[in-house]
Amino acid sequence: MLLATVSKADSYVQFMTVLILFVFVLAITYLVTRWIAGYQKGKMGCGNLEIIETCRISPNKYIQIVRAGTKYLVVAVGKDEVHMLSELSESELDFLKETKGQTTDFAGIFEKVRKLKEKDKE
């Protein structure tokens, strides 16, 4: 049996190699995730179908307002089924202001929640 001794320099080189490979894998994962998200967002944004709003009723049941062409439909979506509830006109809908391009940071959301908690305590 041959005993191999590892010097401090060899250990340092091995550690740096593993660290560089780890950072490289993280960077590739991040870039691929961003690319796939952009690709899927582009696919969902075009066409005649768009989900306007979703409201959760239970863990696996939702009510959604869907734009299909120029019609707005209210549908109930369950685990294994989809049912049309009614049709709405555009004048019956209350659209929220556009938030595309705006980013919400965690600090802003946290501050709003903190203020609400302080208001509740009073």
From TrEMBL:
Location relative to the cell: Cell membrane
GO CC annotations, alphabetized: membrane
Keyword Transmembrane helix: yes
Major subcellular site: membrane
InterPro entries: Flagellar_biosynth_FliO (IPR022781)
Keyword set includes Cell membrane: yes
One annotated GO biological process: bacterial-type flagellum organization
Keywords in alphabetical order: Cell membrane, Membrane, Transmembrane, Transmembrane helix
Residue stretches spanning the membrane: 12-33
Residues spanning the signal sequence: none
The protein's name in its UniProt record: Flagellar biogenesis protein
Lineage, broadest ranks: Bacteria, Bacillati, Bacillota, Clostridia, Lachnospirales
